[in-house]
Structure formats: structure tokens, C-alpha cells
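Can you give me the bound-state structure? Components:
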Amino acid sequence: MDIPFLTSLVIFLPAVGALLTLALRDGSSIRWAALGTTTLTFLLSIGLFIGYDPSVSTAQAPQLVDMSSAWFPDAFDIKYFVGIDGLSLLLVMLTTLLGPIVVLSSWTYIEEKQKGYYALLLLLQTGVTGVFTSFDLFLFYIFFELTLIPMYFIIGVWGGKDRIYAAVKFVIYTLVGSLLMLVAILFLGYEAGAAVNNGVFTTDWYTLLEYNVPLATQGWLFALFAFSFAIKVPLFPLHTWLPDAHVQAPTGGSVILAGVLLKMGTYGLLRFCLPFFPNAAQNAALVIGILAVIGIVYGALIARVQEDAKSLVAYSSVSHLGFVVLGLFAFTTEAMQGAVIQMINHGLSTGALFLLVGMLYERRHTRLMDDYGGLASSVPVLTTLMVISVLASAGLPGLNGFVGEFMILLGSFKSTVLDSVLLVAFATSGVILAAMYLLYMVYRTFFGELTVEANAQMADVNGREFLLMAPLIVLMFVMGFYPAPFLRQTEPTTEFLLDRIEEKRAAALEAAETPRASGRVPVAPPEGAGEIRLDAEALSAQP
Amino acid sequence: MELADAYAAMAGDLPAVVSMMVVAFMGLVMLGVEAFRNDHPSIPWMGAAGLAVAAGWELSQLGASQGTAFFDTVRTGGYAAFVNLIVLLSALATILLSTPYLNDLKRAYGEVYALIMYATVGMLLLGTANDMISIFVGLETMSVCLYILTGLVREDEGAVESALKYFLLGAFSTGFFLYGIALMYGATGTMVLPEMAEATLGTTSAQLMFWGGLGLFLVGFFFKVSAVPFHMWTPDVYQGAPTPLTGFMSTASKAAAFAALILVLYHAVPRGPASLVLAVVAVVTMVGGNVMALAQSNVKRLLAYSSIAHAGYVLVGLSAGTAAGYSGALFYLLVYAVMNIGAFGVMALLEWDGKQGREQTLDSLAGIGTRRPVLGVAMAVFMFSLIGFPPFGGFIGKWAVFAPAIDAGMTWLAIVGVLMSAVSAYYYLRVVYVFWMQSAADVEAASTFSDSALPRATSGAVGTLVVCALALLVLGVFAGGVLETTAAFFDVSAMAAAP
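Here's the bound-state model for the whole set.
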């Protein structure tokens, strides 16, 4: 089956659904319209999974491309350019999967202003899917920013008591980073345009990949890009917006935020930062690795002392995303693969945890762990779901979390760029700490004595709630036992990226060493350059 | 030239000023009707019709090749048409928005609309001037009408204060402006902009006169576009004037003044020294406007400081001094006009204090989004666009002025610009959350709006705002065509050469 414009359809169908919900009047039809749109989008995205062929190289162009250059004047090489490669595929699938799940989880949770909520939720999905499929940096930026507006409203209108503080903090944090990145994008666009695109400003990902950024500018361009993405991830010490946003956001917002929004940061690092600025990225690897490990340990320790179950899960995100960043900056195939898989795993398991905490909140209107206790006897199904999700999140072998963390740690030990066993050893302690704080939460909430009458009366999960949890739980087992099909999808792209990173790193070094050859000269060094270097070596070899 | 020939030549040039004639003639007709049928309700509609006809004409001229008319005093062709279009559409939106507003105020005098028309004529001349005298005549025609409109509610001490302040400071700045023109004329011996660039400034004193004159001239302009440190009048005047007319002042008059400044920089001034001056003024304007806006509790004052900040963004494009910079600035003026008219328009329809919104705080509007959802959504669109969020026009506008600055090697200027945009997010988001996320219980306001005190929103006014919001979306998503149009106005070879 060949559906034309499939990628664009998956991106924009939710936005069409958003318009549809605006036209509807009563709450029930709005919910069904939102559920219908997101489900249809998910089914279409299965078409992407089938249509994407990992054996076909994406070194020259992604697959399932939709492109139009009519968007901007010819003086700028800015295109509508979307497609799928191994990096985007699973993240898009995760986004479209979470779509209907989030709608279902909000079914009774959101009682007021339903029209606005579902319209914004759908718009948010368009933004996120666009981020993961854009192969034009300018387009990427637009989608990247587009996610802020719906999230601002979702936190600010439907959130908890300090919702406005959290919403504004979320937007301003992200905006500072992304606006600085905009400057870097413009600078890079002109420089690359002058060097490899006949002087035409360009933001085409593949064209930019051909350009070897000179060492002198790599440093600050990398800094601006990485700063922006690090805020989004969030990397310690830029994480302070995250707990606020998570605790205040409604359940659906938290799930999207943890499940996919944070991945935009790690995805951006992998898609843009590492391949565009390989030298700077490797120079900074140790520093970023240290920050990532601080995040892992610090996030875990802070999570341990939380009283509020939701902020515990929020801090666990800081810890888990630290693993992903560590994996990216190890520059080995295993670690990078692990990081990609870990992005998906974190989306599944943390998404599930937020959903379950949301279910508890909906029943008792409190998230303090002290208010619960002994729930296992009153809500056995919910307890089972929670235990599975917690174990997945803690990285128990046989569940999905283990695969990603194991590969990341393995790859980081082997990494010559990080080259620090001590650092990785510290990171490993994060796995133990995760088990500690997560199991502690389960212990306080679900086991022990059932003291409060309201908890004894609590209703177990209903059919809708079970339905929305089921796909997540199933995937946790599938990816835990048999991750090969997923790894196969991402492997060619991560290998291609690592190859390009190494090539570009060497080329930039060579350009810097060769006198008078600026970074604007793309690849091939001038003839005889090799001989000169040989002479130099011979000279230096002399006593 | 013989006088007889001159008349013939001028008759041939009349198509160059069609819209000026239409608008001026309509203004006279409106005054005539006013004389016999006092404050007749058809008067604003006559004005709107005249402006619409003129706008239609300019739209057809967008692709026309550039030239001059009336002995090199006005410019014709695409650039002029584009600037005129911004001015005419702003005036049209202003009339549609002020009709219900002035009716509520019981100030729906026919003369008000006629004055809007004359102010528009002044702007049309200002934005298309090819010679210093045209600039001056246009500027003064515009300003005198705006002084009067500011003080429309003459029993209100606040309105009188702002009108008087505007008039006195405006007159003062005109002095600088005129003195600057005189010095530049003295140095070059011509008033025509392109000829100024060609004139040789042989002696040191001629050089001194030219650059000194340009400095004074710029001071006058900085006053009109309210750039820091010549912005002092802006918040007071914007706060006291009738709200839809504030929108008019902050958009159309700025667009016309900036258009004239672009013409001067592009045609008459050699690149170089001016660029740095503009960059410095851009920085202090962006920083000053945005930082001072943070502390405002009154929305009209907040928007006044925001409009100061936005003049700074336009100046970023101008300081790049390249064709792309000028065309980006032009694009920015269009987007800015749409979003600011919209923002003031929404505020005009949300005034409940009976004092042109002078005394109502932002907090007093808590939760108004849910009571007036269309206005609330429109305001959110305007605010996000003013921050520079995609997919709205404001984002492409910022891109269009920052990109040339980076290309011209002024990355530091762009970095200041984006950081200030992040600062501005704080106060624009505040407007959004007060509208949508708070209720009267959440704020500490002495008094809040009541539904009965809110003005009646007519379909004409609300429709105008909806069109503005949609236009921002279109300008944000399909900007390509407009960017191509503005880029075509600037031919690199025609730029004033380096000295």
C-alpha cells in the first residue's frame, strides 16, 4: 500500500483534527474526534514503519520524503523538507502512539474547557512529529518553537495551583535557548551557503552536513546549539524548569512532556550538534558527560526524598535523560544505539508512570505518598501495572529499560572520547539508585498497611484505563525480550552518523592544519598536502 | 523649463499620486457632509471606502517598476506601493475599529475621520518621498493631524496632557529635523535624495556639515519612531490617546517614517558610519523598550514600551545596511502594523474604565479570555507574534531583520536582539496568562471588569481583528511571496556608494 504524502499526513492530520474539534460543540463529540484523529494518525504511522526500509541508505536523502522549495524566495535555500530515517522513525511512532493514549487518559480528567484542551493537544502532536521528521533546520526550528505555545496553555490553563509560574518558566527557559540557537542557525546557514551551496543561504540538513565548520567557529556554534538542546533535555544544571512543569501540568501534559517533548532535546543533539560540530562536540564530551552523570546521580537522590509521587517521577526523568546524553557523547555505536532506544524506553515507562500517578490523583486528589499505603489490596490491577512500569523504569532485565541502559553503559566504558571508567562507574550507580527510589515509592504507596478509609474504597482501573495502559505494558515486554527489530531500524542511521562525524572531524582538523585552507574549502585537501605533512614528520623525527 | 511644459509634465505624473488624491478628496467630501449633516454615521464608511479604493490601486502597482514623479519629489512603483499599502490598510483598520469605540465615547465627530484621512495623506507622502522637502511636508501633515487626534477627549485631563506633550516635543524635534535638512542641503546643494549621494563633499567643512546634518536629521526621525533615548513622550501619549488611534499612531506613522528613513539611507547616505550609529541606537532601543515594559501594569503603557522595542528590531535591519536588511525591515513594518493594530484594537474593545483605558490595570482584566473568547484568542495570537513565535508573522519578521545583520557581520547585534525577545516574552506572556489563566480571585486588583461595563463589540471591529490575526498566520506560514516582493525593491547596484 502506497499512501502519497504519508509523512506530511502523519504530521498534519492532528492539526486538521484540532480544527475539527474547534468546530464541535459538546464535550463528548470533541473527545471522540480527538481520539479518532490520533488513532487514525497512529495507524498511518504504521505505514511509515512498514514503508521505511533500513537496508536502503539514508546517506543522501531520507525515505518517504515530502519536499517543496516553493515556500521561500530563491535567495534562500529553505525548504519544506520532511522524511524518515532510522533516527526519526521510532520517535515518530512513539509520538503517534502516545497521542490516543493521552486523549484517553484525559477522558474524565479534563472537565473544563475541553475544546481548547484537545485542540491544543492535537496541535502539540503536529509540532512534535514535525520536529522528528524535519530535514530542514529552519523547518525544524519552526516546529520546535510551535510545541511551546500549546504546552504553555496546557500547563497554564489546566494545571495545578502554581501553574502560571511553571508555564512561564517553561516557556522562558526554552525560549532563551532556542532564540540563541536561531542566531547560530542563521550564521551557519550563511557560512555553509557560501562554502558549499553557491553562496545561497541554506538550512538543508544534507547540505549542512557537507560543510565542515572551521574549528574556530565550531566552538561557539556548538555551544549555542547544545545550550538550547540541553535546556530541553534537560541537562543538569538547566533542569530546574522540569519538576515545576511536570508537577503543575495535567496528566496528559506530563505524559507528552516526559514522553516526547524532552526527546526533542536529545534528538536535536544527535541530529544536529554532533554531526555538524564533531570536533567541538568531542572536545566538550567529557564536560557534558560529567554534567550528565551529575544529573543521573543528583536526579536520583532528589527523587528519593520527594513526598509527591509526581515530582518523584519528574526527577527520575532528569536522571534517566542523563543516561541518554551520556550515551550520545560516548561516540560509540553501542552507546548511541542505546541512547536512541533509551529515548523510546523512557517515553514508554515514564509515560506509564505519569499515567498511573494521574489515575491515583484522579481518585483521591492527592499525590502525596503519605496519603496512600496498602493500595495493593484495594486496587490489585493498578498495583500490578505500577509494579511493571516501575521495574521497567528501573531497568530490570527482561523489560525495556534494561536494554537501553545496558547498551549505553557498555558503549561508554568502551568510549575513547570519554575515556573515563570512573565516570561510567558513577553513572552505573544511577541504576541502583533508580531501583531504590522507585521501589520505595511503590512500597510507600501500594504496600504496607491500608490505613485510610478512602484508599480502601478506591476503584480499580476501569476498561478505558486498562485499554490505554495495555499497549505500553506490552511494548515494555516486547522491547525487553526482543529489541532486535527496533535496533535494526535505527542501526544504519546511527552508523552512518558516526562515520560522518569521524570523517568531518578529521577533515576539519586537516583544514585547520593546512595553511591558508579555510573551512570553506569542502573536502579534498590540495594536491601535495600529504607530502608536505610527510616532510614535516620527517623533520620532526630528526634529532 | 517653461511653466506650460511643467503643467503638462505634472498632469502626466498624476497616476503616481492616485491614492493620495483619492484619500484627500474623500477627506474633503467627508468634511462637506459633516458641514450639512453633523456627525452623520455614513462618514466613517465613506472614509473606509476611499481607503479601500486607494489600497486596491496600490495593490495593482506592487509589481510596477520604480521611478520618480513631480520633478523627482516623489517615488513611484513597487516600493511606494508597498509602503502605501501598509499605511492605507492600517488607516482602514483604524476606522473600522474606532467607529464603535468613538460611538461609545460619544465622540463620533465626522472631523475625526477626516483627520484620519489627512494624516494618511501625510503618511503617503512621507513614505514615498524622494526629496527632503517632501519628507518634511509629509511628516508635518501627518504630525499635526495626530496631535489633534490625541487630544480628542478634551475634557479629560489625561488626554490633554498627552496631546500637549506630543505637540511640544514633536515641534521641538521638528526643529532638529529641519536644521539637519538645511545642513545637508548646504553641504550637497540638493534636496533630492539620490543626488545627495552623488554630490562630492570635497572640503572638510562640507563633510562636517553633511554628517552633522544627518545626525540632526536622524534625531528628528528617532523621535518620530520613538527610539531610545528619544522615546520619553511615547508611553504618556499612547496611554492618553483614544485607543484605536493609538494603534494608528504606533503603526502607520512609524511605518511611513521608517519607510522614509530607509529611502534616505538607501539613496542618499553612503554606507559606513551611519551603520554603527544605527546599531547603537538599535541596541539601546531594544534594551530600553523591553526592560521598561517589564514593569508596566497598564496594558496601553506596556504596548507603548513594546512598540519602542520593536522600533529597535527594525533598526537592526537598517543597521545591516544591505539590500536584504532594508527589505527585511520593510517586511517587519508590515507584520508589526498588523499585530500592533490588532493588539490596540483588542484593548479598545476591552475598556471598562471610561477613561480610554488609562486607568485600568492589566490585572483587572483577569479571566477575560473566557468571557470574550474571540478577542482573547486574537490577543494571544498578537502577543505570540510580538514575541516572535512561529508560525506567526512576527517570527518571519524577526528572522528577516536578524538574518541580514548576521550576514553583515553583526552577529552581536542579533544576539542582543534575540535575548531581548526572550525578555519581552515575559511581559507578553503575562498578558496571555492574565487573559486566559487567571480569574478575578487570583489577582489583587482594586476593581475588575464587569460584563456590563465592557464596550459592545460590533461585528465590524471584531471582524477586523480576526482578519488581522489570520493575516499574521498567513504571513508566518506563506511569507515567501511577500519576502520576494520586498526583496525586489532593492537593487544592490542602485545603493549609495561608499564615500
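A couple of observations. Confidence is low (pLDDT under 50) at residues 517-543 of chain A. The interface with chain B takes residues 70-73, 75, 113, 141-142, 145-146, 148-149, 152-153, 156-157, 163-164, 167-168, 171-172, 175-176, 179-180, 182-183, 186-187, 189-190, 201 of chain A (CB under 8 Å).
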